[in-house]
Amino acid sequence: MTKSRNLTNSFPVKEYEKLAGKYIAEKNYDVAIDYLSKLIHHKENLLYYTQIGFCYYETELFNKSLNAFIKAYNYLLTPLFYDAKDSEKIIYNTISFINDCYFRLKQYQKSIDFCKTIDSNHKGYVPAIENLAVAYLYLDDIPNMNFYLDLLHKRDPKNKDIKVMLSLCYLDKGDCESALNHLDKLVKKDLDIRELYKIITTLTKNFYFLDVLRYCEMYIEIIKSENTASGDLNYGEILDETTYSYFMTKNYEKTIEYFEQLKEHHDLHSKEMNYQYLDYLLPFATISYLKLKKYDEILVILDDLVKQNYGYYVIYLLISIVYYFKKDFDKAIEYANKVVTEDEILIELFLIIIKNSKNNNFENMKNNLNELNINYNNIEPDFMLITNYCFSYIFKNENNETECEKYNLLIKNHEENEAKEEICEELLKISFDEEFYNNLILMCLDMFEL
Which of 68, 124, 175, 250 is the most exposed, having the fewest neighbouring CB atoms within 10 Å of its CB? Predict the structure, then answer.
């Protein structure tokens, strides 16, 4: 009996290792952490600490990640691991994660103290001096940063990792110009998916739309070449950033191209994505189709979203606007009547334009605009400027120069005093011709969030 083993009561190490690996691959880190915690409780080892450190890092639990990677690092210092043939890469990655956790926690001096424990004979010396340079940059200590950059250049003259690290540090500090100066010296193979994601999201937040497109294209190319779109949780966001950046640079063909890729990606993963990016992008995509007169193409997409019971409440308004641009005024009015608003002045203005489109009834339009101004008596200067511009257009068409001039004067007063300069500038570009309302709708869709 003493030599027999009760298999039912043995700890399922292999099964838990396999499950932890599976959930990490699926990016289901919380579940992976649960299995790895049980494995560590059963028996500590290097692999478990490295894996759980990575999972904590991905879930932004940086204190826990730091603790796990420090334990992994301590294992790596033992002769069994340190003297192993392939240990240098593992040491490099572990030191990199430790310092990145310190940086995320803004514990720059602790990063410096840790790295200074690693001497020039250590296998981790290169990542240590890399991170010392970055830590000093975070602290704006440029002399010390340059000191360690010089050391790094002497030790590893062809090192490219430091350019990426400094770029990401500059992005963290909000210095996009310095980051781009470093990034311009790199090629696609120097950047991985994680680094590209940070570059893209930071540059977009800072309105570097032309620059960000280069990195969006790199990201998408990697995903497509590896055929990992379905498993990449950030792919929808990157398609969103790409679509929006092309729109902001007025490349409407490319806007449509990437919006359609986003729509296709969304349709394949609708349960997980839940229209997360389509909500925001749909008005901009609609503008792009309208600008290129691709009315039927956008109607197919909008109709499909209606069939999916898409909950975006202005979907009928966008369909109505497309039919208005097609000059199918009956259909435009039909869909306009389906729009439910909650006292939203921009939508009300669109509905006034569309519902008066069939007969081009100027008198009725004036009455509706007056009601709009009365109903929104605390109307913002931006919108008052727009309604006044509509009045000016109507009186111009009625050959009533006196009233037209009166509203022109109001517009000029707004321009000088209250209305935002950008709104005025864009609005006054719109000519009083048969495309007046079309161009007004496009401008408002672009400048005001629905």
Answer: 250
C-alpha span between 337 and 326 (Å, rounded): 18
CA distance 365 to 352: 7
Q: Is residue 447 part of a domain?
A: yes
Task: Identify the CA nearest to 284 among candidates 333, 323, 334, 318.
Answer: 318
Segment (H or E) for 396: helix 381-397
- Tens digits of per-residue pLDDT, 407-439? 888 877 765 655 567 788 888 899 999 999 999
**Which residues, including other chains, have CB under 8 Å from residue 448's CB and lie 6 or more apart?**
346, 382
- In one-letter notation, the amino acid at residue 367 is N
The predicted model scores a pTM of 0.82
Does the residue 330 lie in any domain? no
Alpha-carbon dihedral of residues 334, 338, 340, 344, nearest 10 degrees?
A: -20
3-state secondary structure of 153: helix
> Which CA distances in Å does 27 have to 20, 37, 147, 192, 245?
10, 17, 39, 17, 28
Structural domain containing residue 405: 345-450
Cα-Cα-Cα-Cα dihedral of 211, 213, 214, 219, to 10°?
130
Name the residue type at position 355.
Answer: K
List of residues 6+ apart from 368 with CB closer than 8 A: 352, 355, 356
Whole-number Cα distances in Å, 17 to 32, 81, 86, 262, 374 = 9, 20, 22, 35, 69
Question: Quick one: angle between helices 161-172 and 125-138, nearest 10?
Answer: 20
Residue 217 lies in a domain: no
**Could you tell me the pLDDT band of residue 60, with boundaries at 50, 70 and 90?**
very high
- pLDDT class for 378, splitting at 50, 70, 90? low
Q: What pLDDT is stored for residue 5 in this prediction?
A: 41
- Whether 391 is covered by a domain: the verdict is yes
Beta strands in 115-230 (DSSP E): none
